[in-house]
Amino acid sequence: MSDSAAATPATVADAASTATPAAAAAPKAAKGSDSDDESTAETVHVLKANKSTGIKSSYYHFSSTPAHEAERYKPQLITDPNALPATSPPPQLLSTGASAAQMTAPPSASTVAAAAPQAIGGSRWNAAGTWEDCDISSWAHAHFKTLLSAVEVPAVSGKITGYERVTGDCTIIFSRGKKRHGYDINALATFTARVSADGKDIKGTLEFPEIADSVADEPWQVLVSIKDPTPETRQHADQVYDAFKKQLPAFRKAIDQWVADLKKHEG
Asked: Is the CATH code 3.15.10.20 the one for domain 133-264?
């Protein structure tokens, strides 16, 4: 009886020692799997709850920028290229108990702008003198109309009465510290003329198909045309056409003046 009782512990010990590693690890793996399932279920529950309640999740380590702080970084419209927006106060090291009077006020926008270096002809924000362009098309179109409308054709009392179009771009370009003017426009003007005081008005158009810096070395092209001449006005229409053709040098001179004025424009 004692031999049998003594053999029992040894048998149990032998069985434990002969158990496979997979069998020994099975309870731990099962325990880990249950933990992962619980964690996933908890995360899904939190995300669903936040979505339904509108509460922002604290799942992420970094929180969002507070609304009052984000206001300081909102984009600002700069209408004056030489002006800088007001800067945020620089960081300051404050001693314990420092009063408001001891705090240094942040520099004003004008102070910062005055202290910033400025490229030749460019804006203060472009101190390095890299690429920058300034659109002056509106001014250039209006100035073109003014100069061309001043040209008259006395032989037939002809003059420009309006413009059907003036389109194209005119810019001032700053690159590597240098400034140059670029322009590429076209226009269509209307005119009236009269051969005699009691004659009928003859109407026509003057077209300027290409006024661009790329063709500045060539004579400016000006096209004259008469609008729908009738048999009664055809003879006078031919006189008007010839008179305007003879006056083309005056129109080209006005275009040259426009180019010269554009190159003086500072933007």
From this structure: yes
